[in-house]
Amino acid sequence: MAKIFDVVVIGAGPGGYIAAIRAAQLGLQVACVDEWSTKDGKPAPGGTCTNVGCIPSKALLQSSENYEHAAHAFADHGIQVKGLSVDLAQMLRRKDRVVRQNNDGILYLFKKNKVTFFHGRGSFTGSDAGGYGIKVSGASEDMLAAKHVIVATGSDPRALPGAAFDNDLILDNDGALAVPEVPKRLGVIGAGVIGLEMGSVWRRLGAEVIVLEALPVFLGAADEQVAREALKVFTKQGLAIHMGVQVGKVTARKNVTVEYVDSAGAAQTLVVDRLIVSIGRVPRTEGLNAAAAGLKVDERGFVVVDGDCRTNLPNVWAIGDVVRGPMLAHKAEEEGVAVAERITGRHGHVDFNTVPWVIYTSPEIAWVGRTEQQLKAEGMNYRAGSFPFMANGRARALGDTTGFVKFLADRDTDRILGVHIIGPMASELIAEAVVAMEFGAAAEDIALICHAHPSLSEAMKEAALAVDNRTLNL
Ligand SMILES: Cc1cc2nc3c(=O)[nH]c(=O)nc-3n(C[C@H](O)[C@H](O)[C@H](O)COP(=O)(O)OP(=O)(O)OC[C@H]3O[C@@H](n4cnc5c(N)ncnc54)[C@H](O)[C@@H]3O)c2cc1C
Q: pTM here?
């Protein structure tokens, strides 16, 4: 006999678990099914983000940055450190503890919000007038039935053709977060967000890191001025970044040999101890039995949805990495909330124009809205204003003056079109720009707001002032 719910959510990543909580808050009977397990078989809700993505990467980025500060920055503050060393096993244990706290936090939230959690794989069995049948298999074995289904099954790392992940020598994001010893030479294929973050972790811990990227342009999605600054800084830090390469054969024996053609057309060979492959992610629909249910999936494997996350099947919704749009945890969460609202007849709202992007390297990079090159291509009439952290008192006191804030505003209306930051705490500073853009603010609105002194946020105000050529501290 099937257990009956109003909504079954398949997947408890940031999209699924947030959708489940919101739907339950709105008074629905909700089940959430997720198959991720800890090494000892316990449920590990939170998806890629919690288990092998956002959270563990930020834990290691913080640990490795602390080490780098102790090794290179403390002396300038008059702090002498003797006998400094890395206890990698402890660093990895701490990262695992942070992940576990997040897994447990989600299980607690499910209980608190009366979401029934099933640990196992969810797959469609069929549908009738009442809704859909979902079979749970694995750790739990159950049959569920619900009027609404939310597919939130996320994504998997994309492998290089002919170089399957073994997570010993050829690493996906999971392997890259669990290398048992600091490699002497580490190769990274793909200079995107994940490649740069993981490359930074292992470089800080002592690895020589070589990054190979197929595209000719570095960080093509970022504002060109920010990307140029980032390339300069990362190269100075010691990341060897080669753009415009064509990766050929990859051979993994005791170490990894990568044959490639460089941007000048010359054949090259790179030998590294381990290789991280971070060339994008593919939507995960395997195991859903989507075909049997008639769920439409496009040629790249994404579940096809409309602007409201409706699939081709009535009352079946899909959100997060498994559908179009940026593969970001906060985008998945926003879609989860919006779908829960829509199921209960309310209005759900997700604005892709104000989704912030962050790269947690040092300096951090964050942006929202359009880049200067996009505005040029669109023929927009705009004004730009920048302010360097070098001229910000708090940044000087922190000892971190790299980078700048850049505002782009409509020339006629002064409405903010994009904000781009490279520098300390960019991930936190960008929130002000997101709020401003959500409220349709002008650059002058930010320029007129009182910002605490001394704070990095004053660079936001100054960059907004710079749009009208009236910075105060430059
Ligand atoms: C190294 C790394 C760092 C990242 N850092 C960031 C960051 O800093 N900020 C950011 O915004 N994004 C980051 N991301 C991206 C982010 O992790 C994803 O965008 C986000 O996890 C997508 O959420 P989701 O809910 O759609 O899917 P997922 O998090 O992938 O969750 C899907 C869940 O569904 C489960 N599942 C799949 N199929 C089934 C099934 N049939 N039955 C039961 N369960 C199933 C999976 O086990 C999984 O738990 C990072 C990604 C990586 C790899």
A: 0.97
